[in-house]
Specification:
The protein is an alpha/beta fold. It contains 24 helices and 12 strands. A 5-stranded parallel beta sheet has the order 3-2-1-9-10.
Length: 522
Amino acid sequence: MSTMREAAMTSKAWPFEEARALLKRYEKKPPEKGYVLFETGYGPSGLPHIGTFGEVLRTTMIRRAFEVISDIPTKLICFSDDLDGMRKVPGNVPQQEMLAEHMHKPLTSVPDPFGTHESFGHHNNAMLRRFLDTFGFEYEFYSAREFYQTGQFDEILLRAAARYDDIMAVMLKSLREERQETYSIFLPIHPETGRVLYVPMKHVDGAKGEVTFDDTDGREWTLPVTGGNVKLQWKPDFGARWAALDVDFEMYGKEHATNTAIYDRICEILGGRKPNHFSYELFLDEKGQKISKSSGNGISIDEWLTYASTESLSYFMYLKPKTAKRMHFDVIPKAVDEYHQQLRAYATQDDAGRVNNPVFHIHGGDVPTSDMVVPFAMLLNLASVSGAEDKETLWGFIQRYAPEASAAKNPQMDQAAGFAVRYYNDFVKPTKVFRAPTDQERAALTDLADRLKAWDGGLDAEELQTMVFAVGKEHGFEPLRDWFTALYEVLLGASQGPRFGGFIALYGVNETVALIEQQLAA
């Protein structure tokens, strides 16, 4: 056994904990299908969003962890429930009136309002696939429409008809009394209108695999449950899909957690083995409200990637998935800098350290090196005091601080410089508030400027930090943190900031003197 595999077998990193639990499923014999199957589900009623990314990313992390500890092949299926009826017209797409005429039709039977695909469902599926491909995910795509219509689901659907009463007993326990009266696990698709019907069943013939019902006009119909004539309600569909595909692992948000026992039991009634599952906490906005697709609060994936790299988003997704996290623009700089701290640490770690490092899971073991010679938070402060409108302005400072660095040799640094300018102009600049110094602070700042004028120690960040430290101590700041808070609020217009010695080294000694004198004269 390799040292990496040995380390992974005791790692406390959550992907390895889940992978080891999954391996126990097959400690007696390997899967008959020849691989371990991971699944993620997607409702294509709208465009893919940050939750979709997080679900596929985290599932992939567990899949990669499993591949470290086991030689059993793996597969990831991304399943689109595109036979679902369109219950409301999304507000962010064209041709609203046209779409309204097709309410309750399966998404793959609704015309595409963008005019580019066979249907609205096909359009959203294409968006999902392009989205997943952009991030390099390895997966197989499954369409519910194809799954139902091509017969792949027929065996399970016939079994569901034969065991209808058993499945209904599970479902009825979870429903309110008025819902129980009209509920059926089967949703017929009307042979004439093509709409998904939410109607009670008059009769379910388990032997023939047929259902009989009245449509909304009171006409009676009998349809086979096979061939795409009916679909399952979403909760039974979850368990039935697990049974049909022999799914080994699926994760979902905590809003599904209360249904887990229902999904599992239906899977077992239909002859399947319930999979391992993982329930993750939801993302919140800066006010602690749940992030919602429809209300547009929080931060979208496109917005994050406007200000920082994909890897920084992956890092944020990796952290404590069972803890609710506030996801808003202020978390971006911290995520960027922590990601690069972990990259630098990885280079010096042994296997035991590496398998616990988030970057191992972000990059699937093929971890790059960091070329960030200046932290992202420092770049933001630099953009602030220099009023940078482009990244070339920042490179002027960066290259004085690190002469060997360049846009060509440090692509991560170059990308971050561009992001920093954008982030500064959109978020920092509008909220900057400078305050006047107190008498104590004014005396200390004057002393600091005088010492910098006489400074001949070059651009050594640690020596400059020691000197800044000494000024604060000599001027009686207690705690010393108050001195650094004053530097940030008076000079940078912010409540927190970088190590100030590093800032002086980057911005320049003479430039810092000018900054102090400018703010003292304000």
